[in-house]
Amino acid sequence: MASAAPPGPGRRALLVLPLLRPGIARSAPLLRVGSKNFTEQLVVGELFAQALEAAGARVERRLNLGGTAIAQRALTSGEIDLYPEYTGTGLGVVLRQPPEGDAASILARVRAGYEAEFDCTWLDPSGIDNGNALLVLPATARRHGLTTLSDLARVAPQLTLAAGNEFADRADGLPGLRRVYGMEFRRFRQFAALGLRYAALAHGQADVVNAYATDWQIAVGGYTVLRDDRGLWPPYQLAAVVRRAALRDVPGLADPLLAIGARLDNPVMQELNRQVDQDGDEPREVAARFRSAQGLG
């Protein structure tokens, strides 16, 4: 990131804020951190918020905003300064470009598109690649001979799919499965909460579940993840998306966010998600414990 000019009147203070004295804390920059409305987003949103607070910023949390469209609208309207997003989602859903290519080319395209259209920047991605997946119980896989999505397309008219609310309309959801695989299910059931999809699978209310690579349930085991053999789904690397105005006004803003991202990968995120969904811990508590364990204060 290019260095910014020294703050002038009305500009936010330099983010070297651990050195600020308590008596002048009110002069610290105010940053508004958003997130979408599922566990991983709440945890990462908290990690970002706490990292910025530890760096001396004042943070207003606007977490649990809703789906992609709502979070993106909040970003571009200036309601929030940043939130965690996934490269494949940014390319295919927000920019409506074909979600094709490797991780590097997709990151380059979302960076160029967001800067041109929204005046926003994608920071370097974390180690998380939270890609789409369809999974079934092992018994279902054995019964129908399923190892790939092409196999699933053959028997999909006999099966019920459980997925999230956005999956019906997203280009990388049902429309993409129809376009790439000719896949049509007997029934489609929507569940806003991820845990309810797994429960539907366990109780025979669904045969197939739309899942994500960082679901803690996958780490626990007991599921067959079907391979995307025709390359429908691109990489979904998680990164902070930040308004360029905030980056200009708060030099050093990116550093605490990048420090968090450098410590996140799929197994780590699966465990953090599990602590919220299975143990019942609050995202704020999970984030604070993780930061402490990582020596981040």
Automatic annotation (TrEMBL):
An example Gene Ontology molecular-function term: transmembrane transporter activity
The ABC-type glycine betaine transport system substrate-binding domain, residue ranges: 31-291
Pfam family, one: OpuAC
GO terms for cellular component: ATP-binding cassette (ABC) transporter complex
Full protein name: ABC transporter
Species per Swiss-Prot/TrEMBL record: Siccirubricoccus deserti
